[in-house]
Automatic annotation (TrEMBL):
This is Serine hydrolase. Residues 52-274 form the Beta-lactamase class A catalytic domain. Residues 11-22 have a biased composition (Basic residues). It holds the Pfam family Beta-lactamase2. GO terms for biological process: beta-lactam antibiotic catabolic process; response to antibiotic. GO terms for molecular function: beta-lactamase activity. Residues 1-25 are annotated as: Disordered. InterPro entries: Beta-lactam/transpept-like, Beta-lactam_cat, Beta-lactam_class-A. The keyword Hydrolase applies. It comes from the Bacteria. It comes from Leifsonia tongyongensis.
Amino acid sequence: MTIPRQVSERRSRHSAIRRGRHRGAEASQNFSRGFAALGQLALNGVQVSARATDLATGAVLFSVDDHVVMPTASIGKVLLLVEVAARIQSGHLSPLALLDRSREDAVGDSGIWQHLQAPSLPVADLAAIVGATSDNLATNVLLRHIGLEAVSSRTESLGLTRTALLDLVRDHRGPDDAPQLSVGSANELTWLFSSLARGEIVNSVTSQRVISWLSLNSDLSMVASAFGLDPLSHRAVEHRTLLVNKTGTDAGVRSEVGVLRGPRAGITYAVSMYFDDATLASRLAVLEGMRTVGLDLLEYVH
């Protein structure tokens, strides 16, 4: 099979920036706290993957097993949003087209639509609430309309081989279902968000539309808990800080990818944790480790 030149170049770029397991020796001392926190979690049995790159130069600031494919829960919804935005931009999908929810789309957990009375919402509104609350019902309705195969084709066209949306959202996963909603590598996720921030995913309008939806995200419970932002209102610059991020949460999974800008620099980061979520203490330790990484990122951009 002949690989298109654009995809080949993207895959080469992913491969070229990979390094060894840890890059602590080359990283700024600003990241020493994060490395220590992640190292302690790893010693306690947590599977850790992380990466941070300078948004302007692409330089790798630190990485920990950034090539490893990890469960990323709802982060894979970004790939659905890319396909939705691309279809809107091409004229193949109207942002005002009403989509109905059905019994087969029903799912619990994250999101607001399941608690509303409206039986139908426009495409653009569904994408917005996916960005804002990681809405599971809206995800399933969009995915039923768009098709998982189309999302997979778009993902492949971007040159992503370790990152994918695998399934619709389910309350329970059986033996015949995909074991995870999505997977990804920190390497590819930082590339994806850097490219979105630079307007390089599909085209600048498509990238900006996805960024606009993601800028509504209200989950600042992980890495972004260190940034001091208002979870419900942070689309504008506040204290010279601007954030766009997406999180993923599932049993034993905490994952976040984002772009953080400050007065001194911009940074793209991805941190994923896979752990035994048997006790509250285990979960709190993971969240504290992610927050510690966030403190280092904030220091870098300021």
